[in-house]
Amino acid sequence: MIWPFTRKTGEPAPQAPPPADGPPRRFVIPDIHGCNLTFQALVEEIIALRKDDDLYLLGDYMDRGPRSREVIQYVMELMEKGYRIFPLRGNHEEMFLNACADRSQYRTWILNGGYAALDSFGVNDACDVPLHFHSFCSNLPYFYLLDDYLLVHAGFNLEAEEPYADTQAMLWNRTRTMSKEHLGGRTMICGHTPQPLKEIEKMLKRDNGLIILDNGCFLAGRKGMGSLLALELNSRTLYSQTNIDTP
User: Has residue 11 been placed in a domain?
Assistant: First the structure.
């Protein structure tokens, strides 16, 4: 089931139902990429996040879109207010950190949307971004292992002797297939590789161990793309907010 919300056309926003007596709602939101207006609308108006909900974020808060600083600030503010937010590291946070720690990596970050992040922070260099933003990114974990789901930004190298130690795979893999047998009966949910909305819906129906949840929020105007999604894990309900950050 998917709840679309096309705020640009003025349609009313369907909201997620309030949690019933039982386990708290569990939401997963993938790659935000500087689309903070879209992110806030999804969190506050569509899923109507409550303090007894769990919200898992799959990384890539920054770059490409116009509001990298605002996205990270909003996540930190939610955590400070007592919301149960569980953010993961994405490859764009890794590139940002590397751009300051290893100057040879600076160009890689810039070519992957770093200029938009610099504009958002109002600085000219990754090392000039305020320290608390560096600290936020550097302390992000690489994955979350739940009883029924495995959450990661990009994927896993299941051929590695210790898959949970291959952090580069977690940030950069382009996962295409997965089997629940390899994950102890769990379903892996990742972002990183933008998918048309119809393909994401098919993955939810197939239930074959893999859901790639990234609809390319920053790709506004591209057919089948350009929305930020939230998946409620208990009900497998998919919620959508079209990009309202890019004119």
Answer: no
Number of domains in the chain: 1
- Does a structural domain hold residue 48? yes
> What's the rounded Cα separation, in Å, for the pair 229 and 238?
7
Sheet holding 143-145, edge to edge: 143-145, 149-152, 187-190, 210-212
Between CA 67 and CA 132 the distance in angstroms is 17
E runs forming strands in the chain: 2-3, 26-29, 54-57, 84-87, 143-145, 149-152, 187-190, 210-212, 227-232, 237-242
Structural domain that includes position 131: 2-6+25-242
Q: Distance between CA atoms of 178 and 148, rounded to whole angstroms?
A: 14
> Phi first, then psi: what are they for 228, rounded to 5°?
-100, 130
Kindly state the percentage of the chain with pLDDT values over 70.
91
Q: pLDDT of 189-240, one tens digit each? A: 999 999 999 999 999 998 889 999 999 999 999 999 999 999 999 999 999 9
**pLDDT tens-digit readout, 9-49:** 334 444 555 555 668 999 999 999 999 999 999 999 999 99
Q: What is residue 4's predicted lDDT score, i.e. its pLDDT?
A: 34
Which CATH number do you get for residue 202? Answer: 3.60.21.10
